[in-house]
C-alpha cells in the first residue's frame, strides 16, 4: 500500500466500522443499564420496545429514536414550566416519582420495604444498599429510598451544565 490516498480511505473505513460497532455495543450496554423496568426480563422488555424493525437487534437509529421518545415523555411528565428542559426542581421530582415506582416493583412481597435480597435484582441499588439503609435495619424504607433519589438528583444537577 504505497498510495497514501488508498491508505487514508482504508483507515477511514476501518475506523468508521469500528466506531459503528462501538456505538452499537454502547447502545446495547446503555440500554441494559437504563432501559425500562428493573430486574429479570429488563433486557427483553427494552429490546421489544426499542427494536422498531423487530429484527432482534438494536441499531443506532433505533437507539436514538428510543432515547428521543423517552426524553419527550420525561418532558411531557415533568416539565411543569414548559421550557423544553428539566430544571433542578423538576428533575428532583422526576427522580422521586421514578424511585416510588421502582420501590413498588422491587418490594416483591409488598411488605413496604425492600430487603437486601429484593435489591439484588437492581445491580446499582444492591451495591449501595448499606449506604442507603441509614438506620441499618437490613431493609430500605420508602423514605430511605426517596432520600437516595433526591441525593442522586442533586448529584446529577451538580454535574449538569447550567
Provide the fold topology.
Layout: H1 4-34, H2 42-50, H3 60-78, H4 88-106, E1 113-115, H5 116-119, H6 123-132, E2 139-141, H7 142-159
Antiparallel strand pairs: 1-2
Q: Indicate the radius of gyration in whole angstroms.
A: 20 Å
Coarse shape: globular
Overall structural class, as computed from helix and strand content, comes to: mainly alpha
Total count of helical runs of at least 4 residues: 7
Q: What is the overall pLDDT average?
A: 79
Assembly level: single chain
Q: Which properties best describe this structure?
A:
mainly alpha, Recoverin, domain 1, 2 domains, two-stranded antiparallel sheet, 68% helix
Q: Can you offer a commentary on this structure?
A:
It contains seven helices and two strands, in the order H-H-H-H-E-H-H-E-H. The chain has two domains: 61 residues; 84 residues, Recoverin, domain 1 (Orthogonal Bundle), CATH 1.10.238.10. The protein is mostly helical. A two-stranded antiparallel sheet has the order 1-2. Helix 4 packs antiparallel against helix 7.
Short description:
With 162 residues, the chain is mainly α. The chain has helices spanning 4-34, 42-50, 60-78, 88-106, 116-119, 123-132, 142-159, and strands at residues 113-115, 139-141. It is globular, with a radius of gyration of 20 Å.
Amino acid at each position: 500500500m504505497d498510495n497514501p490516498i488508498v491508505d487514508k480511505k482504508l483507515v477511514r473505513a476501518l475506523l468508521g466500522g469500528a466506531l459503528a460497532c462501538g456505538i452499537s455495543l454502547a447502545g446495547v450496554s446503555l440500554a441494559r443499564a437504563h432501559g425500562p423496568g428493573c430486574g429479570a426480563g429488563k433486557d427483553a422488555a427494552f429490546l421489544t420496545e426499542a427494536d422498531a424493525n423487530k429484527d432482534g437487534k438494536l441499531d443506532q437509529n433505533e437507539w436514538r429514536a428510543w432515547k428521543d421518545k423517552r426524553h419527550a415523555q420525561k418532558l411531557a411528565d415533568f416539565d411543569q414550566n414548559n421550557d423544553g428542559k428539566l430544571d433542578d426542581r423538576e428533575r428532583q421530582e422526576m427522580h422521586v416519582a421514578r424511585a416510588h415506582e421502582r420501590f413498588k416493583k422491587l418490594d416483591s412481597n409488598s411488605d413496604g420495604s425492600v430487603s437486601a435480597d429484593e435489591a439484588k435484582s437492581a445491580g446499582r441499588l444492591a451495591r449501595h444498599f448499606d449506604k442507603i439503609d441509614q438506620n441499618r435495619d437490613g431493609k430500605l424504607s420508602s423514605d430511605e429510598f426517596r432520600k437516595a433519589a433526591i441525593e442522586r438528583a442533586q448529584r446529577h444537577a451538580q454535574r449538569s451544565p447550567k
